[in-house]
Amino acid sequence: MPSLSWRVWLALVQLFLPSAVIAEGPLLDGWHDVWFFRFLVNMLGYATIIVPGYFLISYFKRSNYLDRGSGLCYPLIKTCVFGGEDKSVLLGDVSVSSRNEPDSGSSLKQALKLIFCAAGLQVSYLTWGVLQERVMTRSYGAMSPDHEGESFKDSQFLVFMNRILALTVSGLCCILFKQPRHGAPMYKYSFASLSNILSSWCQYEALKFISFPTQVLAKASKVIPVMLMGKLVSHKSYEYWEYFTAMLISVGVSMFLLSSTTSKHPSTVTTFSGIIILVGYIAFDSFTSNWQDNLFKYKMSSVQMMFGVNLFSCLLTVGSLLEQGAFFDSLAFMTRHSEFAFHAVLLSVCSACGQLFIFYTINQFGAAVFTIIMTLRQAFAILLSCFLYGHSVNIVGGFGVAVVFLALFLRVYARSRMKSARQSVLPQKV
Questions:
Q1: Of 117, 153, 300, 329, which is least packed with CB atoms within 10 Å of its CB?
Q2: Segment (H or E) for 146
Q3: Rg (Cα) of the chain, in Å, rounded?
Q4: What is the pLDDT of residue 425?
Q5: pLDDT at 279
Q6: Torsion over CA of 171, 172, 178 and 179, rounded to 10 degrees?
Q7: Measuring CA to CA, which residue among 380, 295, 304, 311 is closest to residue 121?
Q8: pLDDT (tens digit per residue) in 81-124
Q9: How far apart are CA 296 and CA 198, in angstroms?
Q10: Are 187 and 82 in contact (CB under 8 A)?
Q11: How confident is the model at residue 170 (pLDDT cuts 50, 70, 90)?
């Protein structure tokens, strides 16, 4: 039976296309396989939560609730709408200074920590990448070569699974470990949550139309839209070498895409759909990182950021899934296929553990070391995917991949040189 969201979209189609006399069932069944329509239905589900929330927040702000409010709900509303503190203390300054202090531990201890961080990041995200491709591109329950089995199609449910476990892990960390006093209005996390949901949805959905190596290279090239979003959202300025390496990355990705064979994806429309979804992923992900940078101006830790973003992500995704009737359908798929249930849970565990390893690695060794580890992870992910799932890369495509990773390492090298130069100049100014 069609869900509420499907019926609303059907009514809109009949309103604007009255000449299209199509039966309700065939229309819904056919359009359910179109990724753009699924995207619009998801957005409608999010809107049923975001729009009422917007009006509530506007009402509390206009009515000076902070001055005249009282009662049992006052602390909750104050935290969600107004926050607890001003942006007076920057946590980033504290964390950077703590990393710059002399290391009291032995070189062996630091080496073991680095191996632990590198191994944790590689295992978490390589396993996550392999499972992601397995879930989205392969079927479950195939008893014989003639029986194709059943494919899982709801990317939004996988996003929810990842976020609910990440919310649990970050919540436990906030309880068990001392955190700075939280000051940001909670509703501000919803912007990053929405863009994070959409980027993750595009990431899963794109694998229906493109290969995993292509997706990995697209992620590597997201420094370009991140720079654009940085100029638009945060008004940042960039050095010449950043533009040069961004150009190298775009050239390498173009070489790889143009050299790819079309045997696996003969349809031009399908390939075009995959590129459009990838562009959506990069745009949404770029907005997420820049918005989170702005949120870090409040006094908060990375774990608090993780908790706030995943809290709203869970609220939005579970609301949309329930409205579409897809939540219980996905649970039924899990009960029919225990292998999928194991893969979905392990996928979520790898995602949550990977986020914790990210925070720990940056805290212990800084962003430069973390970037090198993750760049190597992307290269290993392409090799592993080609080995496990039979993706072919010709000489031109391989050269394009090499250009991309060369540009990424040049960025790390140039950034570390500039940081060292600034630190050497700083004492002369004092």
A1: 329
A2: none
A3: 23
A4: 65
A5: 87
A6: -10
A7: 380
A8: 888 754 444 444 444 333 334 344 577 888 888 889 989 999 99
A9: 21
A10: no
A11: very high
CA distances in angstroms from 206 to 10, 194, 277, 279, 311, listed in the order given:
25, 18, 6, 10, 25
Distance CA 123, CA 126 (A): 5
Helices (DSSP H) in 296-366: which residue ranges? 302-324, 326-336, 338-365
Q: How far apart are CA 108 and CA 116, in angstroms?
A: 12
Residues in the chain: 430
pLDDT in tens, 125-147: 999 989 998 998 888 987 766 66
> What whole-number distance in Å separates Cα of residue 74 and Cα of residue 376?
49
161: closest CA among 135, 139, 143? 135
Picking from 415, 303, 409, the residue whose alpha carbon sits closest to that of residue 352 is 303
Residue of 212, 43, 223 lying closest to 137 (CA atoms): 212
pLDDT higher than 60, residue 359 = yes
Apex CA 340: angle with CA 384 and CA 150, to 5°?
A: 100
Its sign, for the CA torsion 242, 260, 289, 365, is negative
Which are the contacts of 206, defined by CB distance < 8 A and separation ≥ 6? 215, 218, 274, 277, 278, 281
Q: Which amino acid is at 105?
A: G
User: CA 425 to CA 41: how far, in whole Å?
Assistant: 54
Nearest residue to 119 via CA among 327, 353, 339, 309: 353
Neighbours of 17 (CB within 10 A): 10
- Tokens standing for 208? 């229906």
Contact assessment for residue 1 and residue 28, using Cβ atoms and an 8 Å cutoff: no
367-396 pLDDT per residue, tens: 667 777 777 787 788 788 878 877 777 788
Residue 57 neighbours by CB under 8 Å, 6+ apart: 80, 81, 187
Interatomic CA distance for residues 44 and 37, integer angstroms: 11
Q: Which residue reads 């029919």 in tokens?
A: 336
238: left (phi over 0), alpha (psi -120 to 50) or beta: beta
Residues 6+ apart with CB under 8 A from 343: 131, 134, 135
Distance, in Å, from the CA atom of 411 to the CA atom of 372, rounded to the nearest integer, reads 10
Cα(81)–Cα(267) distance, rounded to whole angstroms? Answer: 48
Nearest to 313 by CA among 203, 205, 162: 162
Angle ∠(350,141,154) on CA atoms, nearest 5: 55
Asked if 277 contacts 206 with a C-beta cutoff of 8 angstroms, the reply is yes
